[in-house]
Amino acid sequence: MADTLAVDIKASLVWLFQDTLDLSIVADVSKLEYTVALPDGTATDEADRLWHDQRTVAASANDDLDLTALARTIFGSAVSIEMVKVKALLIVNIATTAGEELLVGGAAAQAWAAPFGASTHKVRVPADSCLLLVNRKSGWAVANGSSDVLRIANAGTGDITYRIAVVGTSA
């Protein structure tokens, strides 16, 4: 039996900005939304690989994820998921204490830097915050043995638990 994947990615920001004047209230009410559906496949606007987990990184430690060998147990069986391209990455820092920040990117060796610009570049994800990256058309390439390590570093003083989902393709 073949597996299939369907992914819906949604992000929105809704606001009400009001300015109280002498005789009236001026309001700006609007929203900015991004929505995309990725059906099963390896072409443009498609994805056939998904990996997700909840993980904990000790203080001052790193969690280096090999995007070509993401381990997972599914229905009691151990599997390894290989990404050739990453179409979406969501990281949620579930720490609630200010200062408990994750640094995403910047692995010492074999850094996956495609969305970050350079192998030393990092994105800071503060406590109770998230990072969502999407490249639905072509995806970001992952090269086994040369650019396949996504580092999640703990920049805080206590253990940090985070949730992660990686959506990509096998070709």
Written account of the structure:
The chain has 171 residues and is mostly beta strands. It has strands spanning 7-20, 25-38, 49-57, 62-66, 70-74, 77-81, 85-93, 102-104, 123-125, 129-134, 140-141, 149-154, 160-169. Strands 3, 7, 10, 11 and 13 form a 5-stranded antiparallel sheet that branches. A 4-stranded antiparallel sheet has the order 4-12-8-9, with no helix packed on it. A two-stranded antiparallel ribbon has the order 1-2. The radius of gyration is 19 Å and the shape is globular. The model has no long low-confidence stretch (mean pLDDT 96). It contains no helices and 13 strands. Strand 1 (7-20) and strand 2 (25-38) form a beta hairpin. The protein has a single domain (41-169), classed as Jelly Rolls.
Q: Provide the low-confidence segments as ranges.
A: none
In the CATH hierarchy, the third-tier topology is known as Jelly Rolls
Structural class: mainly beta
Radius of gyration: 19 Å
Total count of domains: 1
How many E strands?
13
Strand content: over 45%
Shape: globular
The share of residues in helices is under 10%
Q: How many individual helices?
A: 0
Please give the CATH architecture.
Sandwich
* Overall pLDDT level: 96
Encode the helix/strand succession as letters: EEEEEEEEEEEEE
Tags for this entry?
mainly beta, Jelly Rolls, 5-stranded antiparallel β-sheet
Question: How would you briefly describe this protein structure?
Answer:
The protein is mainly beta and 171 residues long. The chain has strands at residues 7-20, 25-38, 49-57, 62-66, 70-74, 77-81, 85-93, 102-104, 123-125, 129-134, 140-141, 149-154, 160-169.
